[in-house]
Specification:
Layout (H helix, E strand, L loop, with lengths): L1 E3 L8 E5 L5 E5 L2 E6 L5 E5 L8 E5 L5 E5 L2 E6 L5 E5 L8 E5 L5 E4 L4 E5 L5 E5 L8 E5 L5 E5 L2 E6 L5 E5 L8 E5 L5 E5 L2 E6 L5
Antiparallel strand pairs: 1-2, 2-3, 3-4, 5-6, 6-7, 7-8, 9-10, 10-11, 11-12, 13-14, 14-15, 15-16, 17-18, 18-19, 19-20
């Protein structure tokens, strides 16, 4: 379930998957069905650059689909393990960053995809870690550790395998920090290249 601004109005809409009942949108007190198919995952992003967020649904064996004003458009025939939307090049539109299992991790829009890594990302977090016009994505590559995609470059942030990642501007400096759960090693904060442990406990 997500909240997103799909119509450009002052309020956001809720998009929720109800299993066999399909994918639905709640807008100003009423529900409307977006798809009769059961979505494994749903995100939102302005993929076509029209200033509105589109729904991106992972429909398992049916692949990735993008809900535009013209209806559903196929984005990929592959089933994603994980995906986020982010403006990776500062162009004002967002791209989909998706992990496709044995196929690796890819960046794309609508059937235009570029392979970023042969490794499969198990978790991702969108962030603006340097405060510039584009966004970065932190990706958990399992035993390969935690990596950051910035523009066209990868950099390894940690050799440890995170259990979860989230991002936010935690010190109001205009750039995002990463909060990363490293399991038994505790909860850590990554800020501009420096790690600080903020809890010895392993959060649920």
């Amino acid at each position: 379930m997500i909240a997103a601004n799909l119509d450009g109005s002052a309020d956001d809409e809720v998009v929720a998957d109800f299993g066999a009942a399909g994918l639905w949108q709640w807008n100003s007190g009423s529900w409307s069905q977006l798809s009769g198919a059961d979505a494994d995952a749903v995100i939102a992003g302005d993929i076509d650059g029209n200033g509105l967020q589109e729904v991106i649904g992972d429909f398992g064996g049916l692949g990735l689909w993008l809900k535009t004003a013209m209806g559903w458009v196929g984005a990929s025939s592959a089933d994603a393990d994980f995906m986020v939307a982010a403006d990776l090049n500062g162009g004002g539109t967002e791209e989909i960053l998706a992990a496709f299992g044995a196929l690796g991790t890819w960046q794309g829009t609508i059937y235009v995809w570029t392979k970023l890594s042969p490794a499969d990302g198990s978790d991702m977090a969108r962030a603006n870690t340097d405060g510039n016009n584009d966004q970065e994505v932190a990706v958990d590559f399992g035993a390969l550790g935690l990596w950051l995609r910035n523009g066209t470059q990868w950099s390894q942030l940690s050799s440890q395998n995170p259990e979860s990642i989230t991002a936010g501007d935690l010190d109001a400096d205009g750039a995002d920090e990463l909060a990363v759960d490293f399991g038994s090693l505790g909860l850590w904060l990554w800020n501009a290249g420096a790690w600080t442990r903020i809890s010895v406990l392993n959060p649920d």
